[in-house]
Amino acid sequence: VSGDPGTDEQASSLAGLHVLVVDDDEFMREVALELLAQLGIVELRSTGDAADVLTMIDSDAMATDVIVFDLNMYGMHGTELMRRLAARGFGGGVVLMSGSSQQLLTLAVDLGRDQGLRVLGSLRKPLDLIQLRAALESAVAAGYVRGPRG
Amino acid sequence: MMAVAMSDPVPEGGPSEGAVGAGADPVVLDPSVLDALLRGDQEKIARLGRKFLDTTSAAVDQMLEAASEGDHDKVGRLAHSLKSAAATVGAPRLATASEELESACERGDGALVGPLVSTIAALAVRVAVELAGPEGEESR
Prior knowledge:
- The complex is a heterodimer.
- Chain A is α/β, with parallel strands linked by helices.
- In chain A, about 45% of the residues lie in helices and about 20% in strands.
- Chain A has helices at about 10-15, 25-40, 50-60, 80-85, 100-115, 130-140, and strands at about 20, 45, 65-70, 95-100, 120-125.
- In chain A, strands 2-1-3-4-5 form a five-stranded parallel β-sheet, with helices on both faces.
- Chain A is globular and about 35 Å long.
- The termini of chain A are far apart.
- Chain B is mainly α.
- The two termini of chain B are about 15 Å apart.
- The model of chain B is unreliable at about 1-25 (pLDDT under 50).
- The chains are: A alpha/beta, B mainly alpha.
- The interface between A and B is medium-sized, with 21 and 19 residues.
């Protein structure tokens, strides 16, 4: 495995994160969850419907530190999800994924940051474990790990 | 599901070399890609392989139906998703064909849509055969 990013030390730095994965493609959602588990993250949730995200964070007893979501979803597009998250004052980190061009991803990152979201980074599909880890480590470094913790 | 003959349709005038499911193509599936992603965990490779086959089969069925109805927006969305999934499991021909189909839909190039959908359906069957491996061959 190139980079072999899953050492115990690296995993432990991310283990406290609560991460929500949003992708309407079931296979890609499973892949993202698997990679996050490889990084030592235990508190994982996922949904295929962006509309669920708003409900989840509105009644979020476990507090979501990072939302990893696809830009090109049916129903609610990722840019609309970003707008709604910003309108709710979501204070966690956001990681964008897409199979589209890097240029489009960069535009989306800028858009999210302009709206006040803490966009940690963007990942082009197919997903890369090293890039995913880097984005999440920046969440830890920035102190986005939030409470309450049970 | 995915009741597609193992034909090898090559649309007249395209798509490009990379999208054609030619019989001589040696790289239908590169198993090292999924193996590396999942660190050689055979149980996970098998589970995600099955998930890929299930979702791809459903996507191809929907793609064929949407193409027959002339719904190129839907075909393009399905191709977009399939492009990423195919690259993830190490199916570069399928990924390339899906990308070409997505582009054709975005351009409104209706003449390419049908042939590319047929190419993708055939490639998806070949990837499924490769993913199933020798055990899958024996069970058929």
